[in-house]
Request: fold
Amino acid sequence: MKHLVVGLGYVGLANLAFLSSNSKDEVVGYDKDEKRINDLKHDDYYLEEAKLNETLYNEKRRIVYTSSINAFKDVGAFYIAVGTPSKEDGAVDMACFYEVIKDIKEHANHDAYVVIRSTVEIGTGDKVNALLNKDGKYHFNVISLPEFLSESSAYEDEMNPARFVIGVDDEDALTFIKRIRKKSLNDGVPFYSMSHVSAEMSKYASNAFLATKISFINEMSRLAESLGGDIVDISNGMGADPRIGHSMLNAGVGFGGSCFPKDTKALIYKGKENDIEMAINEATLMVNITQPLLFLKKIEKHLSGVKDKKIAILGLAYKEGTGDNRSSPSLYLAESLLKDGAILSAYDPSKTSRESFKKGFSSINVCPSLDEAVKGVDAVVFLSSSKEFKEIGETRLLKLMKGRYVFDGRNIFSTEHFKYCSYISIGRKDSLR
Ligand code: UDX
Reply:
């Protein structure tokens, strides 16, 4: 069988690497972006995903990369993994997705499975089924197979998912997924088959729930801070209950990335369309929007205003281990600090992140090293929990910085870590020196 993966971002590439390393079938990766295809053909992998890139490299003789629409011929299974960004009003932008559906309709030349991996507007699976199978020569068996990948572990998550949520119309579709995911089936990973709508909603509900967990702990951090509690202790105390769990309970400057903000907005939008108040999702989003704002106020308060103050922003990507700046708290903070007259330097361990940040902020001195960014500043602001940041010693900071203020937007240090610097974090007592 020929498998064609359409859209080679995190999801598409992880899917492609999985198919290639787990079957003997023909595997083709298609993307409209010719530069991306050319880079992939020359082992130039643009994502900072070590395991994924290693697998793609090892599989390079088996995978065909192309931008040619001829790739849509003779396909037995299409996997759609194109981007579905947010529109201004929160609705899901499905334009690229439906272009692919049109291409399948026009160019496919026999029956095929159409596996939806993109996070699509709820109702899409049924719509696609109707569109593709209306007065056509061929039959397309549509399968909704949402992905649950985190950036920085895209391949690992694709290989070893906690569960499969599968929207199907018939037994044949389920059998197909079980066949290509035989290893997971044998390993006892649960397969939940359901309607397309339920599968699509499972994806949104999972992300919105995780985002809500983060906003919940962030809301608690505000109260802890004013009552003299310590949110890290509180989070540990809560997370030890297996019904709650420790993950997604780290208070901080808020969630970013391409999924949580977009997916909570999409649910709110769907609620509005259907006259259903999405009060929890609204609150999740609101806490997340105001969290960096409150952090900014603390910076302003402790520095007695930021006008002409030299500040280093450390951590530009939305989280450690990725080069992705989408919806990163760093964007909001940089913009606000600049507006208030601060003189900014910036650094992220990821070169991709630094370069994309530089494009958005020409007046910020984006540095190639941590030391350069920190040199001579009045304050440092940590916005991600990169290993490089965790390992920075106070002696090194003291040697480089002019001032003595450390603002920690991810609670990466203990409140006793700094002996000579004032340390201000989230949901904990300030340690002022
Ligand atoms: C997320 C989901 O985890 C994944 O299942 C889904 O498929 C896509 O969205 P990702 O966006 O890669 O993955 O990152 P994740 O590690 O979940 O973090 C998202 C954001 O939340 C980051 O900005 C992170 O810093 C923040 N976060 C995470 C917290 O503020 N506190 C936490 O406890 C965890």
